[in-house]
Amino acid sequence: MSDPPAIYVLDTNVFVQAHRRHYAFEICPGFWDCLIHYHQTARIVSIDRVRDEILSGDALETWVKDSAPPTLFASTANATVTTNYADMVRWVQAEPQFKSEAKTGFAQVADGWLCAYAKANAQHVVVTHEELNP
Questions:
Q1: 14, β-bridge pairs
Q2: For a disulfide at 19, which of 34, 60, 68, 76, Cβ 3.0-4.6 Å?
Q3: Whole-structure pTM over 0.85, yes or no?
């Protein structure tokens, strides 16, 4: 018996970089159709807080509002997700290796929520373009 396939949880920067750099809507509409397809087959998802970060008044916001299924952005209003998030924030705040600006930033953006959501849901894998910046 094999494990169920992974479900990929997309970070804000996956959408933004695709839109601004590699897969503009007018150049590569198939990329965006593919996102919808793989969401409909339960292979990709994102979260409500990523959606909120995307809503900045450009073509990506229009795509989210007009083309993306609302279910692409799952709710983080769940006790397990909230507990996971609180645990992560406490850990980050207690770690002396992180600068205070990084600690504040972590608590203000969707990243922690994305990780908390993935941790709350078995087989979920976070997809991001984040890089270590000591």
A1: none
A2: 60
A3: yes
> pLDDT for 69-106, tens place per residue?
999 999 999 999 999 999 999 999 999 999 999 999 99
Question: Where would I find the beta strands (DSSP E) of the chain?
Answer: 7-10, 44-47, 73-74, 124-127
Give all strands of the β-sheet with 44-47 in edge-to-edge order. 73-74, 44-47, 7-10, 124-127
Q: How many C-beta atoms surround the C-beta of residue 44 within 10 A?
A: 21
CB-CB contact of 6 with 125 (8 Å): yes
Q: What is the pLDDT of residues 6-52, one digit of tens each?
A: 999 999 999 999 999 999 999 999 999 999 999 999 999 999 999 99
Torsion of the alpha carbons at 6, 38, 50 and 111, rounded to the nearest 10: 20
